[in-house]
Structures are given as C-alpha cells and as structure tokens.
Amino acid sequence: MSSKFLEELSNDYEKLFETEIRYDVIIYAGEEPNIKEIHAHSNILCIRSKYFRTAFSNEWAEKKDGKFILKKPNISSHLFDIILRFIYCGNIELKNLQGPDVLKLLIAVDELNIHQLISHIQEYLIKHQTVFLHQNPAGILETIYQHETFTDLWDFCLEKICEEPEILFNSNKFVNLKAPLLELLLKRDDLNMDEIEVWEGLLKWCFAQQNLDNEPTKWTKDDITKIERSLHRFIPLIRFYDIKPTDFFYKVYNYKDVLPQDLIHDLLEFYIVPDIKPKTNVAPSRKPNLKIKLDSTIIQSNHIPLFASWIDKKESSHYDNKNIPYDFKLLYHSGRDGFDAASFHRNCDNKGPTIFVAKVQGSTQLIGGYNPLDWNGNDVWKTTSGSFLFNFADGKNISTANLGYVKNPSVAVYCSNNRGPQMGNFLCWGNNNWENHDIAADYYPNIGIPNTSNTPSNFAVENYEVFQVIKK
What we know:
Blueprint: H1 2-19, E1 25-29, E2 36-40, H2 42-48, H3 50-57, E3 62-64, E4 67-72, H4 77-89, H5 99-111, H6 115-128, H7 137-145, H8 151-163, H9 166-169, H10 179-186, H11 195-210, H12 221-231, H13 245-252, H14 261-272, H15 303-311, E5 326-333, H16 334-337, H17 341-348, E6 354-360, E7 366-371, E8 380-382, E9 388-392, E10 401-405, E11 413-415, E12 422-423, E13 426-428, E14 434-436, E15 461-471
Parallel strand pairs: 1-4
Antiparallel strand pairs: 1-2, 3-4, 5-15, 6-7, 6-15, 7-9, 8-11, 9-10, 12-13, 13-14
C-alpha cells in the first residue's frame, strides 16, 4: 500500500517540475547557441542537494525580481533536465544515453553533490556501457582520475585497460596521456602486454611529447637530452630483463644513448654471459590477472568477451573476462590439421555451435563467423537467425570490429563435405581457397570481408581456427 502512495507522490512532484507553479529559480543550462532556460523551486533543490543549499544560502546565485538566477554553461540542458527530474521525483532513466553522455552526467551530479546518483551512474556505466571506454580511453581515464568520488569507475577502467591494454596503447589518443597516468599504468604488475610492447609504447609516447623522429641517427645532442629527461621517471618501471634477446638488440639497444649506461652494461652482461643473474633488484615479471585460458595463435583473450556478447546479442552491456557464459574449445587449426575440407569436417562435425576465425594473408585483418547449429550434412542449407559474420580490420585492435547478423535465415549456413565453413556466400572451398561474393548483401551485411565478386581469383588466409562454443 505504501509503495502506491510513494508513486503518486513522485508523480505529483514531477508535475510540479513540469508545470513550474510558483518557481523561484531560473537556470540557464548549456552554451550558445543551445542555452535553455529551466525553472525550478529553491526549497526542493536545497533539500535534495548540498550544492544548491550552499549556493542559495551564501547567495552565490544572482537574485532578480525575487528569483535566483543560476548559469551552468558546462551542463547541457538535456542533462540538467534529467538531474532535476531525479531531484523532484527520484526517478532516472539512462538507457537512452550513450556512454559519453552518461559520463558527462556523472561529472555533473558530482559537481552538484548528488551522492545517490554518483554510485548509481558508475554502476550503470560499468554494467551497460563498457564499449564507451574504447572511444577515447586516454581522455576518459584522465577525466575519471580528476574526480575522487569515481572510485568504482576508476578501478573498473584500470582493470579493463590492464586486461586489454590495446584499448589504450593502440588508440590514436595514447600519446595525449598525462605522464602521471602513464607512470601509474607502467607500475602495474597485471598489465597484459609483452614487455617489449610496453617499451615500444613508452617510446612512442615520449617521441610524441618531444615532437621528435624515432630514428636515433637524426637526433641532436639537445634531442638526446630531452628524451633522457622525458624517459627518466619511467625507466625503473620497464622490466628490461623480461625482453627477449633479439628484441633487446634491435629495439632497446638501438636507443642506448638515452638509457643509463650502467643499465646498458648490466643488460649486455645478462644477455651475453650464460647463467648470469641481474645485479640489481628488478621489478617482478608482469602477471596479467586473466581468467581466460585460450588455445589460439590467431586471437587473444580480449576477443572472447566480444564473441560471447555477439552470440547473446548484447548491444550495450558487453561481457567482460569475469562473466563470460561460454567456454571456447579449439577443435581445428589449419596449420596443425591441414586446410582440406575433410580435416575440417573430421574435427568440427557433431560438435554443435562453433565460431571460426581466419587471418587474411599478408595483413592483420581477422574475419570469421558464428554457426549456432553444426557442420553436419552434405549439400544442405540450414536455417538460423542467430548466426553472424565479423571482421576486424586490425585483429590486434578490437575496436576495429564490424559485425553483421544474418539477413536471410534460410541461407545462413551451408554444409558440404567438399567445403570448409560456409555462411551465405562467404566460404572456404578447402585447400585455403576462400571467396566472398554476396554482391547485394542479401545473405549477410557487407562488413568489409574481402569481396571476390569483381576479382579473377579468390583469397588466402595464413591460418584459420574453429572453436566449439560450450555453454557453462
């Protein structure tokens, strides 16, 4: 019974906000040319927010004709409307907002000291808008770092970037990352990168800060001094002893002029003299905190949450490494089992749902598809609405993914003893002979898989793998 009365009370207060009866606050939200005048009631704002209590009691706000005047150019009128509706009636709807706008809303409620919403919006971002981190990871990380109350979101973003560092390190905004944030990341023992990649990322960042070429032979003495100063704070954070000898010689020793000479001497001794141990105390090897065990030479652990999310058609709330509802068991690897169709069927028939991934020859592009049925049968089309094709323009960067669910379910999957996997008109004939000629995109959308319709020959892949998708 009481809940019914609370709902009526909430509705009445929302009507008060909408009708603006006896308002005494005028808020100018947003910037030109999108400034909007919003009317409110000071007594309600004061009860619900310490920010407004302080503003009105200390007369921050200008008062004219008996009405408080507030100007908030840094908060858009749309977001201010959402905040005020929550203040009046306790309701808030976030599902129609994109990740960047939800983050802006979080910043606004933090400024307005509405503590209930700070936790709620952080939880929503973590559960439903994880993709937003890929859009501008450096900027988002810096924004969250500047707000002490965003602790849950900060922990989540750090953990996510340590699990999938390519989100940040492969971003074109990586070089804009502030030095304290980069230092904080390089200190992490759970950063999931080969140490040589960490070193190369640091160099890329450093050269961008100094606006210098990455070729040491082109540096002046002043350039060397600048780079030494820029690198100084980060050198102790690089686990140089975990770098392979070949990578050390070609990718580290090449920059010996900007590294401490005693470090270079110790590293040379370590790599040349058998069974020698490091002379100094060094940081322990990084140990990524990953729960996914993946048997693959083509994909990485960060592809798996994405595949699982696509299988379950989760549009905004993607899985992460902690809540994946499937296991992905390697059934077939072309380099191990052979490219012929017979090998494919011998390993993949009677296994139920599978996902296959191929690396296009001479590129970093990954392509493939998900078959929720099986590969049994000969010369038969199988009907399903759950299949999809995918394309990563750069397989090392999951933000380059493009996805296409089947458009014509009756021709979703084709099974033939003489062919490898076929979905629509994208298929492997066996013996590494691939083609894709769905010109009109009638079967699946055009998502950037190489099109062989207008070329005289098919294309090849370096290898492809097939995984059995097992519900946990």
